[in-house]
């Protein structure tokens, strides 16, 4: 994803770019705009987008919308188009399915920028049937702004809660975070390894992190072998993505590969991110030979300690409310899905299905 060529626009308007679209921003300019955006996570960075496109881009049509004002790019909508059932064309965020948080990349003038983005989409409505925007943080102003835009333009929109995101908020709650760090259940697991050998921890970035990726992949594959959910790293595309992302972040920072070693051997590895004052949980693994002693929990305790010691605002366990997360967190966020329909019949079908499933869940 080289630098993008933006149109020289004197007023705020958008241009829809297909295929190998160019937005007019280099790596530093893209990330500078990301840092100004309401949702500023690693999943909106240039490195993330570039790495995802390298691994998965050839499977999708790119649909990038760049918004410029006075010759300056002020907003980006990084989309792909996926072909669904019976040829239905579905617009999604680039990185959908891998990015835990998705959103538009904009300056502070968010209402106008999103208005221009959707003007460009609606003018090109023949190119899509459904716009499905997943994993938008529930607190993002995107939710209400897009609803308003769609209602004003006559498009049907369906809002759904998608995931719960348990988080250990540290800033303002440091005593509570320390109490969680010192939970007997966590300390007990760590003491087992300390009493029976040498337990050490590594927090790796750059080239050092890249050198551990082979062991991380192999450990993850072994961890999930024979289960109903085999490792994603059996797919070479996923290995490519993780390698590309590690390489792209080697000099820019953001990646944090944390390792718990017992007698010099890795017993648990976590591929995560240390970005924008937050530690992000992403992909863990552990050595199944030590499963009964919970090496994964030993590494979680280390990560909580790392976040506290480094003065991070929070340790975000991101999407998914697996039971273990609730034991180490004090706050729960949510992500939302927005579905916009070109055809009203399609909307009513999805709306009815959503209400039926919600009623079944309520009764169960």
Can you characterise this structure?
By secondary structure, this protein is of the alpha+beta class. The chain has 2 domains: 13-164 and 336-363, Gcn5-related N-acetyltransferase (GNAT) (Aminopeptidase); 171-312, Gcn5-related N-acetyltransferase (GNAT) (Aminopeptidase), CATH 3.40.630. The protein is 38% helix and 29% strand. It contains 12 helices and 13 strands. Strands 1, 2, 3, 4, 5, 6, 7, 8, 9, 10, 11, 12 and 13 form a 13-stranded mixed sheet that branches. Helix 2 runs antiparallel to helix 9 (236-249), helix 5 (174-181) runs antiparallel to helix 10 and helix 6 (184-196) packs across helix 10 (295-309). The protein starts with 12 loop residues before the first strand and ends with a helix. Residues 1-21 have low confidence and may be disordered.
Q: How would you summarize what this structure contains?
A:
With 364 residues, the chain is α+β, with helices and mostly antiparallel strands.
Features:
29% strand, Aminopeptidase, globular, 2 domains, alpha+beta, 13 strands, 13-stranded mixed β-sheet
Mind sketching the topology for me?
Elements: E1 13-18, H1 27-36, H2 46-56, E2 61-69, E3 72-83, E4 89-93, E5 105-106, H3 110-123, E6 130-137, H4 142-153, E7 156-169, H5 174-181, H6 184-196, E8 199-204, H7 206-211, H8 213-224, H9 236-249, E9 255-262, E10 265-275, E11 278-286, H10 295-309, E12 314-316, H11 323-326, E13 331-341, H12 344-363
Parallel strand pairs: 4-6, 11-12
Antiparallel strand pairs: 1-2, 2-3, 3-4, 3-5, 6-13, 7-12, 7-13, 8-9, 9-10, 10-11
